């Protein structure tokens, strides 16, 4: 079994440390190490899965709300947050699912309450359909785990060769834009800094670019078949209690995706926040966090 070690965060001396006061550990993988938050005790543990271009920092309010009652595990995907950022690495959905599986197995988590957001929907649900017996409850936050022909032009242009390289990796335009376009309520400067700190160079933005390129828009794309397979297996999770909390002003994961979740999980509890956008845990955390805490406390 791989050994994880508690480490001192490289952000300890930055202004965001007060916003992100969590214990982190590292899991060695074949090509680099995966960083993850591991806070609280008790169970069943909560497993929080982020997307692109965020990292575990996105879940800071939810970690603080859940940790007094239970263990909370929040990985940074390879290339994201405090995890290593190797340049020659398969930054694909399949690899991220496998890494999540490795972490859950390493920590010997028998059953989890799952929270997914953005690319974390496909990653988290990709793991969950492999292990439905290890999932107790699910919270869905503005995400998808099924194919869609819709892609906003602001995302699509980031996939273009040369232009996408310069914009995403050279100018950090994808992550910077998200700190403005993914919220309704403007972020405080320290919060914006928290989102951007891990992505401070061309090399450190490699996963942001690869995530965008991994969006499957046609059947020839290597990730298309995997997303389709995850979608076909979602009914294995239909008996799990699900809470869908949706930012209604999300221009990326719009109400089209909300309708997709409701079609697949008709028994899910749904709350749509009219005045929240994609980063719902920024715009509406005062309401969202207590709802998740209560939902996970239910029997």
Automatic annotation (TrEMBL):
GO molecular function, one term: hydrolase activity
One GO cellular component term: membrane
Coiled coil: none
Cited Gene3D superfamilies: alpha/beta hydrolase
Segments traversing the membrane: none
Record-annotated AB hydrolase-1 domain positions: 47-283
Keywords: Hydrolase
Pfam families: Abhydrolase_1 (PF00561)
PANTHER family assigned to the protein according to its UniProt record, in alphabetical order: CIS-3-ALKYL-4-ALKYLOXETAN-2-ONE DECARBOXYLASE, MONOACYLGLYCEROL LIPASE
Name assigned to this protein: Alpha/beta fold hydrolase
């Amino acid at each position: 079994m791989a050994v994880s070690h508690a480490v001192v965060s490289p952000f300890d001396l930055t202004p965001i440390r007060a916003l992100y006061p969590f214990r982190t550990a590292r899991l060695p993988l074949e090509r680099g190490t995966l960083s993850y938050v591991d806070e609280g005790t008790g169970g069943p543990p909560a497993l929080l899965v982020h997307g692109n271009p965020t990292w575990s920092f996105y879940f800071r309010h939810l970690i603080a709300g859940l940790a007094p009652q239970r263990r909370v595990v929040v990985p940074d995907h390879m290339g994201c947050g405090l995890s290593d950022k190797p340049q020659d690495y398969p930054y694909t959905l399949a690899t991220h699912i496998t890494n999540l599986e490795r972490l859950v197995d390493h920590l010997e988590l028998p059953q989890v309450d799952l929270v997914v957001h953005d690319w974390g929907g496909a990653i988290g649900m990709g793991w969950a359909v492999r292990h439905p017996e290890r999932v107790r409850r699910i919270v869905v936050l503005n995400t998808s785990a099924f194919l869609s022909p819709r892609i906003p032009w602001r995302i699509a242009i980031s996939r273009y060769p040369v232009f996408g390289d310069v914009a995403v990796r050279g100018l950090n335009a994808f992550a910077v834009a998200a700190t403005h376009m993914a919220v309704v309520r403007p972020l405080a400067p320290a919060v914006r800094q928290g989102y951007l700190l891990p992505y401070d160079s061309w090399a450190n933005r490699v996963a942001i670019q690869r995530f965008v390129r991994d969006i499957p828009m046609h059947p020839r794309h290597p990730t298309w078949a995997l997303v389709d397979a995850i979608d076909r297996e979602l009914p294995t999770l239909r008996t799990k209690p699900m809470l869908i909390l949706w930012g209604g002003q999300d221009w990326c994961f719009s109400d089209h995706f909300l309708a997709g979740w409701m079609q697949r999980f008709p028994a899910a509890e749904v709350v749509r926040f009219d005045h929240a956008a994609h980063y719902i845990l920024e715009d509406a955390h005062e309401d969202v966090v207590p709802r998740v805490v209560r939902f996970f406390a239910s029997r």
